[in-house]
Amino acid sequence: MSAIQVMIVDDSAVMRQVLGDIIQRTPGMQVMHAVSDPVAAMEKMKSGWPDVIVLDIEMPRMDGLTFLKKLMSERPTPVVICSSHAARSADLTLQALGAGAVAFVTKPQHGLKAFLVDSAADMMRTIQHAAKARPQTAPRPHPVLKGPSMTAMADAADVAQRSNEITSNPARHSGRVIAIGASTGGTQALEAVLRCLSKETPGIVVVQHMPEKFTSLFAQRLNDICEIDVREARNNDIVLPGQALISPGGQHMRLSRANAGYKVEVVDGPAVNRHKPSVDVLFRSVAQVAGAKAMGIIMTGMGTDGARGLLEMRHNGARTVAQDEQSCIVFGMPREAIDLGAAETIASLSSIPGEIRRFVSSIN
């Protein structure tokens, strides 16, 4: 098997040198080029194409996002974004994921060399998985105009009204809940699914592997383009129809009972399957609390997180779905779930909204 050819595009000389050295020492990998900006990258790529590009966002002459969009429109290539935790960089990183980047790594604004050395194994694993990915450019949707009344106060009033409704009329909601887990490629996949759902959809709880500061921005972006309401979860939030709660980065989320319905508990704790939030933590709580009234969906992502939790959900009577290989950017998590027998149904990304509607209809 030939070595994975990696191109580093970053204006930091430290990044290029240290990451390049780590890649060169990793069996099965090789640095093809290390350049300071996308203009130099495009020149180098005339003579040979990399398997994976590690790309900074903010650079001179051409920014990484512009380069990524050009790349994806001409020749989709696995791209791993490297950006800082700064708010502006986080926003641009989410735009990059929406434009087709398959993964991202957050780097500190200071102590970059030490960070790269300490996180070398994770970085190499990310590049290895990216090399197997099938990058896709997601069509940009027309935003859902929710109107100027959708302020924080209006949102709070709506939540309170629906919370009272679920308590006073539990028969209508029948304790239904949908749990979704995703990782690499999940930002595009979640957007594709949630955009298709109506306000009548049962409450949704989501774990997307993502660091803190990113999940809030991600939820805001989804909220702008979806009919349902989407936001980052807070501890003790009630799970309501027509709403998706996304676990905050750096914390786990569990489902628990609340009167006639459910609420979420946002808690700290050790990483599970090397992740926090962990899909397994969410799925196992849903299996215990909601049983046969739940639906579990595992989508694109590297690793094994969520597979065993989905199996517990199926054993407790829940409907379970795994995204199929063809529509996954990375087939790791769904493959593990399928191999364990956790998935009752294997569905393409475009079919998952229909599976959700069938789940709802089967209970009515």
TrEMBL record:
Its EC number is 3.1.1.61, 3.5.1.44. SMART domains: REC. Phosphorylated by CheA. Phosphorylation of the N-terminal regulatory domain activates the methylesterase activity. It comes from the Bacteria. It is found in: Cytoplasm. The keyword Hydrolase applies. Residues 171-363 form the CheB-type methylesterase domain. Keywords: Chemotaxis, Cytoplasm, Hydrolase, Phosphoprotein. Residues 5-122 form the Response regulatory domain. Its main location: cytoplasm. GO terms for molecular function: phosphorelay response regulator activity; protein-glutamate methylesterase activity; protein-glutamine glutaminase activity. It catalyses: L-glutaminyl-[protein] + H2O = L-glutamyl-[protein] + NH4(+); [protein]-L-glutamate 5-O-methyl ester + H2O = L-glutamyl-[protein] + methanol + H(+). The modification 4-aspartylphosphate is found at residue 56. The active site is at residues 183, 209, 305. One of its GO terms (biological process) is chemotaxis. Pfam families: CheB_methylest, Response_reg. GO terms for cellular component: cytoplasm. Involved in chemotaxis. Part of a chemotaxis signal transduction system that modulates chemotaxis in response to various stimuli. Catalyzes the demethylation of specific methylglutamate residues introduced into the chemoreceptors (methyl-accepting chemotaxis proteins or MCP) by CheR. Also mediates the irreversible deamidation of specific glutamine residues to glutamic acid. NCBIfam families: PRK00742.1 (NF001965), PRK12555.1 (NF009206). Belongs to the CheB family. Contains a C-terminal catalytic domain, and an N-terminal region which modulates catalytic activity. This is Protein-glutamate methylesterase/protein-glutamine glutaminase.
